[in-house]
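Hi there,

I know you've been waiting on this one. I reran it after we fixed the sequence typo, so this is the corrected version. Both the input and the resulting structure follow.
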Amino acid sequence: MAEVELNPFSDEEAAKICAHPPHESTKDFLFQQTMYRIKDPRRSLIFYSQVLGMTLLKKIDVTPLKFSLFFMGYEAKADIPHSSEKDQLVWTLTRKATLELTHNWGTENQPDFAYKIGNTDGIGYGHIGILVPDLEAACARFEAHGIEFVKKPDQGIMKGIAFIKDPDGYWIEIFSPVTIANLSN
């Protein structure tokens, strides 16, 4: 079998494909959320709020279908409207880059239950990324909390970035803009 030459997709071709302006009908589109299914909200909420510093923006219980949604993001608690449930939901759904944690009731009571997250059976789903101002300080904090690392900043070929796991095993890239800029040189 002949060996195939591997080359990166060129900057010029990417720019050419994406050169056209967005369609007028998409001008108000917003990347709003990534959804993770979680086994145990107690563990996940502690991780995302107390370890990563996110704020719970809105919790929604969908009683007929027996699941709850927890919208997490980097917003100030003081900015969350409390005038009405509807206002709070609309506000939450207009924040950029939130994390929607979905809990199907009862999974926390099943000892062997685990979601298939895409990184355990070969290459699949990738990760979310969290920007931090000081990578070393952030990693020291995660170590102090006993967080599992997939990769520490000084490991592997790509130095200067880290990957940690959340309670369900999802990968989270931890990076600072400076270290990423240094990697691209």
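Quick highlight: The chain is about 25% helix and 25% strand.

Best,
R. S.
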